[in-house]
Structures are given as structure tokens and as C-alpha cells.
Amino acid sequence: MKAVRALTALHQRRQELLSELQEVERQYGAEHAAALRVGWTSEQLGKLGFPEPTRRPRGRPRGKARSASVKTSGPSAEDASATT
């Protein structure tokens, strides 16, 4: 029973540390992205000892992808070559 108590305590501490690490990773990613926005490059930051974050911070969601079946207006290159 003593071993299970010790394991339970360590498991709880491990979960707390993992949660804390996730928060620090989120903050690090946000600050890394902020440095990139103001003109630093990933290479420069890496040389200073700041590697790219393991997970990019959440940003604005991307728009819906355009469908490949969307036709553009005007004649296509195939249409133009057929009329000459």
C-alpha cells in the first residue's frame, strides 16, 4: 500500500508539472511569434539560444479553402489556342 501512495503522489506531481509546462510552452510560442512579427528571424533567435517553439501559438483561423472546381471568368488558355 505504501508504494501505491508514493506512486499516487508522484503521479499527481507529474500531472501538475505537465500542465505547467503546457502553459509555459504556450507563452513561449506567443513570445517567439511576437519576436518574429517585429523583425527577428527564426535563424537569429536560434543563434541566441531560442529554438522555434514545439507548437505554434493559436492565431486567427484560416479561411475556407477554395474549391478546385471554381471557374474563373474569361477564356482559358485552352480556349484561346482553339480559336487561333
Describe the structure.
The protein is mostly helical and 84 residues long. The chain has a domain at 1-57. It has helices at 2-37, 42-47, 77-82. The longest helix has 36 residues, at 2-37. It is elongated. The N and C termini lie far apart (89 Å). Residues 43-84 are annotated as: Disordered. Residues 70-84 have a biased composition (Polar residues). Residues 56-65 have a biased composition (Basic residues).
Concise account of the structure shown:
With 84 residues, this protein is an all-alpha fold.
Helix-strand layout with pairing:
Elements: H1 2-37, H2 42-47, H3 77-82
Which series of helices and strands comes N to C?
HHH
Task: Give a count of the beta strands, DSSP E runs of length 2 or more.
Answer: 0
Structural class: mainly alpha
Mean pLDDT: 83
Largest sheet: none
**Uncertain stretches:** none
State Rg.
26 Å
Helix count?
Answer: 3
Q: Termini separation (Å)?
A: 89 Å
Instruction: Give the overall silhouette.
Output: elongated
Top keywords for this entry?
mainly alpha, 84 residues
